[in-house]
Design brief:
The protein is α+β, with helices and mostly antiparallel strands. The protein is built from three helices and three strands. The longest helix has 13 residues.
């Protein structure tokens, strides 16, 4: 997952991931508020969250693509392992992405 500052940037990253066959599906959550401390200041910002469905072997390329297109100095790029899922859906993710 990654948080981005606006919908246009989030859509651009999502489309790039799909065009490169690095993700099977991406959910855009357009209205989140992030609270965090950065460089000694408490911040509160509106952001968009992308949830990217992919396979583990694509992570390195996804991280590089996001880092290249992300406007933040330190972008949030987090991967979580799937422990369980509908087998047919997990197979679709596998078939929809390339290593």
């Amino acid at each position: 997952m990654t948080a981005l500052p606006d919908q246009d940037t989030a859509r651009s990253v999502a489309h790039s991931l799909l065009e490169e066959k690095l993700a099977a599906c991406i959910n855009l959550m357009p209205a989140i508020v992030s609270f965090y401390e950065w460089k000694g200041e408490t911040c509160e910002d509106s952001e968009c969250l992308l949830l990217i469905k992919t396979r583990q072997s694509c992570y390195g390329r996804i991280e590089a693509l996001i880092h290249t297109h992300h406007p933040y100095e330190l972008p949030e790029i987090i991967a979580m392992e799937i422990s369980h899922g509908l087998p047919a859906y997990l197979e679709w993710i596998h078939k929809s992405t390339q290593e």
